[in-house]
Amino acid sequence: MDTPRSLGLVGHGAFGAFLESLARRFAPGLEVRVFARKARPDGRRFFTLEETCRCDVVIIAVSIRAFEEMLLQVLPLLKPGAILVDVNTVKAHPARLLAQHAGGVAYVATHPMFGPFSFEKQGGTLAGLRLVITENTLAPGTLAAAIAWLKGLGLDVLTMTSEAHDRMLAETLFLTHYVAQMVAAGGFVRTDIDTLSFGFLMDAVESVKADTELFRDVFAFNPWCQDTIARLEKAESEVHALLERAART
User: Is the full-model pTM beyond 0.85?
Assistant: First the structure.
């Protein structure tokens, strides 16, 4: 495929809007078209779904549970040779859907391991932030060129299977969300005597505690999260037992 000249963004929630800002900043030569259900098409920024899907590269940026429905709407609208990009937080679920429905389409399943909060904490730069690529049907040269471009922006690009990604995600991002939800539910907040370690904990809590929809979806569509919860519950029992023994001495 020739160098893409247009990018279609399907979905304009918090992450879709973030992707739009990144595209306009780091790929200023691209024509960017956005489809948002709540925005009226104006032919400048917002477009119909049909117009958005006629771009060279189309990114579906909707919630995990809405992905299949949107995928089925997007696929028949793609122009020949277009590249379809998935940016879901979990990977095995969308990878199965792409393999099932997107035969003959060039697609790539990815997970940008960052969002608006981490981007800002990084000083508004992509340097050192990670992006994972899993299943794809891109030509080897096209994939290599895409990875080279992404690395040129400063991103750390990793390739792995969707199953390996989801196993690690359950022990990292989901674990962070799980602890953050408990800390938030417990009403724990910053104080005037915070230690450095507590500050790091609250940074993590504040970065994800508002993403309750994502938290629920990752749990629903990543089966390895169940194991993470079981391990946490077992560890909690062991810690309680340790404290009870200490209290008796």
Answer: yes
Residue after which a domain boundary falls, among 106, 138, 160:
160
pLDDT tens per residue, the chain (249 residues)?
A: 578 999 999 999 999 999 999 999 999 999 999 999 999 999 999 999 999 999 999 999 999 999 999 999 999 999 999 999 999 999 999 999 999 999 999 999 999 999 998 899 889 999 999 999 999 999 999 999 999 999 999 999 999 999 999 999 999 999 999 999 999 999 999 999 999 999 999 999 998 888 999 999 999 999 999 999 999 999 999 999 999 999 998
Same domain, 71 and 101: yes
Q: Using CA of residue 157, residue 153, residue 114, residue 4, what is the dihedral sign?
A: negative
Domain-located, residue 28: yes
Q: Is residue 209 assigned to a domain?
A: yes
Same domain (yes/no): 155, 92: yes
Give the structural domain span for 240. Answer: 171-248
Domains: count for the chain: 2
Q: Contact at 8 Å (CB) between 193 and 65?
A: no
Instruction: Report the alpha-carbon distance of residue 71 to residue 84 in Å, rounded.
Output: 10
Buried b (16+ CB within 10 A) or exposed e, 184-222: beeeeeeeeeeeeeeeebbeebebbbebeebbebbbebb
